[in-house]
Structure formats: structure tokens, C-alpha cells
Amino acid sequence: MTLPLSADTRREVARRAGHACAYCRSREAVVGASFTVDHIIPQALGGSDALDNLCLACWDCNRLKHIQITGIDPQTGDRVPLFNPVSQIWEEHFAWEARGTLIAGRTPIGRATVNQLQLNRPILVRARELWIQAGWHPPTD
After folding, report:
1. CA–CA dist 65, 90 (Å, integer)
2. Domain residues of the chain, as ranges?
3. Model pTM above 0.90
4. Which residues in 96-112 are b (16+ Cβ under 10 Å) and which e?
5. What is the pLDDT of residues 104-134, one digit of tens each?
């Protein structure tokens, strides 16, 4: 049995992420909900509670990632690692398209992550449209 993460650890993960989902880049304040801490390498696969294995994720990204650490690149059909938000840079693997409503994968890792985590799920695309109108999206950091 694993122990819950400490409040200090949760605060540090959220602070480090700028209170945004490491995958879809939604912001807690815009969504109006606290996000969860994702184990990049899931505990079920031997991942630890160390800060370098933790990232902030919205509930849907965390649910869709589940215990996956790889995904299929829809362009090549190859199985590749999913994006690691602690050791990799978001902008190297993803780009905003369609005025910021869509996330495009720039690399096999990016494409597989977009596919596995459904980063362009219809409700999120509709929300991004509203966030753009309000001037809250896309994030600039």
C-alpha cells in the first residue's frame, strides 16, 4: 500500500507546473477545479513519489493516461514513449494550431501523447474556444 502524497509535495508540483496541466495545458483557475498529481512512471510500474516523477494533470488527462507510459504514433504506427513533462519541453513536442484550439504533435512522442490522452477531445476544444474569446488562452509560458 502506498501512502498519500504530502500537502507540501502537492503544492510544489502545482507551483512548478504554474497550476496548469502538464499535458493539455489547461489552467486550474480557468477550469475552476484543482488538478491531480500524475505519476509519470505509474506506481504500478515501479514509479516513485519523487518530484522528478510527478507532474500536475487535469483529471481527464490523468484518467486517459492511466498506467500508460507508451502510445502509438498515429503517423508511423510505432509504439513510442509518452511525453515526460519533467524531463522534456512541451514546445519541442507540441504546437498550438487553429488559433490555439488544437494541440498538434510535432514529434512521434507528441503525436502519441495527443492520441493517447485525447488532447483535442471535443469538450476541451470547445472550452479553448471560450478561453480564447476571454483572452485566457493559449498559455504563453
Report:
1. 16
2. 7-134
3. yes
4. beeeebebebebbbbbb
5. 999 999 999 999 999 999 999 999 999 999 9
